DNA sequence: GCGACAG
DNA sequence: ATCTTGTCGC
């Protein structure tokens, strides 16, 4: 699975913001014919006290959620962590890992926000636009926006709003646990994103895709 | 000027 | 994210 769109990565924070403002015009928040056979998850971890970025991607079959393929890529960390610019720090390694897949997933769940971002262009949207593929943002904490507390049952959710628009939802993936922040990444609707995240979360707080990718990305064996 | 701030 | 052991609770 290779990116269909390319652009420079050695940018200054100001240049990165300018690029986000341009690329965000390409984000598609509508559904497309989707036949879910394989779902992927991506996550990133760090080694050597942060000097090395380690990206992991796993592909599971759907709806069984059995591991079909996995890949890892390491690259020297070259961009600092700046809230709002996470994709410039993590995507280079993620793209390299994705290139090693033989199976092309139908949708990718990302550890981080989609359009629930100050400029509506979080890591999930950035990845989706580069691949021209459906992606979903699943964050463990909030980057921006306001919301009420969702009901305490699995599947309960509350809208995440910012600047008068709904940018995502706060979704309870399991009864009694801290909810996650779900937003559109690219090429699907928020309703579909919620449905897919719940279908990928049979037992734990986080979707199986992201859980397994996280295990691969941050375990220094 | 004072907070907030994905991973 | 990462540095780090045990411990509280179901």
TrEMBL record:
Does this UniProt record's set of keywords contain Chloroplast?
Answer: no
Reaction(s) the record says it catalyses? Endonucleolytic cleavage at apurinic or apyrimidinic sites to products with a 5'-phosphate
Q: Is Zinc given among the entry's keywords? A: no
Q: What is its EC number?
A: 3.1.21.7
Where, per UniProt, does this protein localize?
A: Cytoplasm
Instruction: Report the principal subcellular site.
Output: cytoplasm
User: Where exactly is the site Interaction with target DNA?
Assistant: 81
Which Gene Ontology BP annotations are present? DNA repair
Instruction: Give the required cofactors.
Output: Mg(2+)
Keyword line? Cytoplasm, DNA damage, DNA repair, Endonuclease, Hydrolase, Magnesium, Metal-binding, Nuclease
Name any GO cellular component annotation. cytoplasm
Its top-level enzyme class, in one word, is: hydrolase
A single GO molecular-function term is: magnesium ion binding
Which residues are recorded as binding Mg(2+)? 43, 111
Q: What does this protein do?
A: DNA repair enzyme involved in the repair of deaminated bases. Selectively cleaves double-stranded DNA at the second phosphodiester bond 3' to a deoxyinosine leaving behind the intact lesion on the nicked DNA.
Q: Which family does it belong to?
A: Belongs to the endonuclease V family.
Q: What is this protein called?
A: Endonuclease V
Q: What is the lineage of its organism?
A: Bacteria, Pseudomonadati, Pseudomonadota, Betaproteobacteria, Nitrosomonadales
